[in-house]
Predict the structure.
Amino acid sequence: MSARRAGGRGRVLVVEDEAYVRDSLVALLRAKGFDAEPAVSVAQALAHAAKAPVDVVLSDLRMPGADGLELLRRLQASAPEVPVVILTGHGNVASAVECLKAGASDYVLKPADPEALEVTLQRVLDARALRREVRYLRSAVAPAAEPVGDSAAWRKVLAMVEAAAPTGATVLLLGETGTGKELLARRLHRLSPRAAGPFVRVNCAAVPVEMWESEFFGHRKGSFTGAAADREGRFHLAHRGTLLLDEVGAMPVSGQAKLLRAIQDGEFDRLGDEQPTSVDVRVVAATNSDLEAEVGGGRFRADLFYRLNVVRIDVPPLRERVDDIGPLARSAVADVAARLGRAVPELPPETLARLRAYSWPGNVRELRSVIERAMILDPVHGLESLDLLPAPAAPPEAGSSRELNLREALTRLERDLLLEAQRRAGGVRKEAARLLGVDPRNLAYYLRKHGLGDGGDEG
């Protein structure tokens, strides 16, 4: 998806009322690799900035009507993350300093020296990129570790990731909970031309329906009750980067048409804006649900599914990559030991055999949790404490005619657990969610998936 070409050195909005100077600056910046666009006035500049993300504004100080200082002040109110560089004559240096005090990033004397202008803009862009990177690193909730494993099934997945990464195509990651879909999405981003841009994740199952549009597309101050300030949506935050739509199967039907437009056209309507906003975002979607079944049941739009299903990668469960259990377990042991400030213990052969014998319904996430629990609750014996590890599933009795279809068996187990949790919780959704270890909004999705209603009382 791209309303604009990816790459380049950044989008520069050149605000200058004199046509010759404006056109010369735009031509110069484009020749140096910037995505430069002209604006003849403050009003036109603000309209441009509202319609599509701007990386930096280069504005003349003296213009008829509203001047560069007024533009700076208005941008500080509406888009404070956008840096402004002021163009000024030698006689107006004092006014340029006033702009710096008001929040401008820098100023350049006219006539602008091409090399000095390039250095200034690049320095401002680098500083902005660094601030964004720090913000996203601080907000990241998943480890940035490389995927671990060398089984044939896992090598096939990694090969597909590496083939898809540089293309910019939309990728759909399908697999059970805990298989490492987010880890693969982050690898897609790191191997893509957008690696220097932001990686933004949103859990579609955790966004309340009434906040869905604001969460994804943002809103203007005062656009609805409680909108006390402007907010950038996830699509805007992911401009020139990658947006991971985690648990996309749980997205409300009411929002799917707007999501399709944003992915397909690179354009969306922010609440309170009169003009659409254009963005350049690569979308990766992930889910543990059967989207084709959801389409057949009318719970997921077919056109959205086809738009997401450009490159489909099926992520295998851990029980189908038993050869990776050893490397994954050793990696988890090292990570936990580092967090606890201990030496890395050996993984006893009998413990590894026990780990390999287990079916791991929670996949890699469950494996890491089991190891962490063992190392924390029994620090003396650690991984030798087999009573802290799961027992292997009992084999079926001889002559049993039980259905062996894995997908159907897991579906039945999931439904049985939901029913038992509801029974124990007396129909109280929050308590049932606590028993199952899931978010209440995720629980509502699973209940709908199995035709068990909306989960009962919120209590």
